[in-house]
Amino acid sequence: MVKNFPDDPRFRDLLGNETHYLGHRLGQLGRLQEAEQAYRQASEAYAELASDFPAKPRYKVNCGHACTHVGNCLAGFGEFQQAEEVYRQGVALLEEVEANSPVADSSTENSGYLLAWAYSALGALLADTGRLMEGEEVLTKSVAVAQEVVDEFPHPQYFRTVLGSACLNLGKMLRIAGRLPEAEEAQRQALSVALKLVDDLPAQPRQRRFLAGACYRFGLLLTDMGRMPDAADNFRHGQTILEKLVDEFPELPGDWNSLARLLATCPLPELRDPQRAVELAKKAVELAPDSEYYWSTLGKAHCRAGNWESAKAALEKRMQVSSRGTRSDCFFLAMAHWQLGEKNEAIHWYGQAVEWMESNNLHDIELHRLRAEAAELMGVNEERTSEEEEGSFRNDKQ
After folding, report:
1. For residue range 86-136, what is the model confidence (pLDDT) as tens digits?
2. What are the pLDDT digits (tens) for 214-234?
3. What is the largest CA-CA distance in the chain?
4. In b/e form, how buried is each residue of 50-88, taking b as 16+ CB within 10 angstroms?
5. Cβ–Cβ < 8 Å for 94, 87
6. Which fold has domain 1-100?
7. Is the Cβ–Cβ distance between 314 and 295 less than 8 Å?
8. What residue segments make up the domains of the chain, in order of their start?
9. Contact 190/214 with Cβ under 8 angstroms?
């Protein structure tokens, strides 16, 4: 239709809307590379419309929204520089609409909450890559904008979800900074939003998933604070929610995957159930065999269960599906190779992960703990550089 009627904006708008929705569905199936491509196509369609029809701010709003989705995909792959560039493009578009549209109308009514969401995503990336002051500034702005939107429009669930997400990301940043009491305050605000959403919309699975994620984040923080019984309660609450979701929506792989990750990687070992995590992850892979994310979970679950050959096979399959992605998989793959006596391969994958972490100045607490676990297993001196360490290993083997 667009090719046949290139001057009719309705068909170009429809193309943007449909490819945006396609990206959403592909993301739900864990097919992140395809989701990224769909979101990029949507953002390009909206960008052309915004250029051709500058008096219609809706196109800029939609383009900014799509940019945030593209950035989320890139951040999920660990491609932080590219993600930041796209996030900032989206923020600029949404800020322009907000600045030039002081009175909301039907074309701009979503720009406020989408700007808060874009700020939240950008601020989380800045914090994860070690720019804590800038990250705090952007995340504080995100919470403020989201709260303003919710105060004006208290009923739409998406507006409140964005407020909760902004509080979660602010809490994560404060946790990275070691400001644990402030992190707890932000996380409690996020939990309050999530609980109210579930109370108001008990039939909405989206809100229950958000609550499960908020419980997990709060459990991580409480673990850092040494409050293990409270942490365990939050992890169990999240697990209970996910158990019900897989019962109600057995056709959706994301819930199987989330439950598998929780049971495989929970920081409290007594709450792990790696054997069951393997079975849950297998179900996710069965439902979505083209998802690198679900193969990653299966590999990690096998590692925690001590199934080293199966772990290696699943993680190598994950690399075959997509070579892109965060290098936490590389740490698990390094440990699997080490346990199998394949020292050179273990050294290679450990070095890949460390190089990626250091080049991006990553401050993710769980990732640093995983690196320490792999280093302890392999006898790595963490005070030395990865190049020095690899050379030491090879010299020891000669």
Report:
1. 999 999 999 999 988 755 554 556 889 999 999 999 999 999 999 999 999
2. 999 999 999 999 999 999 999
3. 72
4. beeeeeebbbbbbbbbbbbbbbbbbbbbbbbeebbebbe
5. no
6. 1.25.40
7. yes
8. 1-100, 274-323, 326-398
9. yes
Task: State pLDDT tens for residues 205-214.
Answer: 999 999 999 9
Cα gap 120→141, rounded to integer Å: 8
The span from the CA of 75 to the CA of 228, in Å, is 31
Average pLDDT over residues 377-396: 58
- Of 43, 24, 47, 45, the C-alpha closest to 34 is 24
Residue pair 130/362 in contact (Cβ under 8 Å)? The answer is: yes
* CATH architecture of the region 274-323: Alpha Horseshoe (1.25)
Query: 26, 353, 253: which is closest to 261 by C-alpha?
Result: 253
Separation of alpha carbons 174 and 3, rounded Å: 50
Q: Which residues contact 83 (CB under 8 A, 6 or more apart)?
A: 71, 72, 74, 75, 125
Question: Which residue, 327, 288, 281, 285, is CA-closest to 305?
Answer: 281
pLDDT tens for residues 138-185?
A: 999 999 999 999 999 988 899 999 999 999 999 999 999 999 999 999
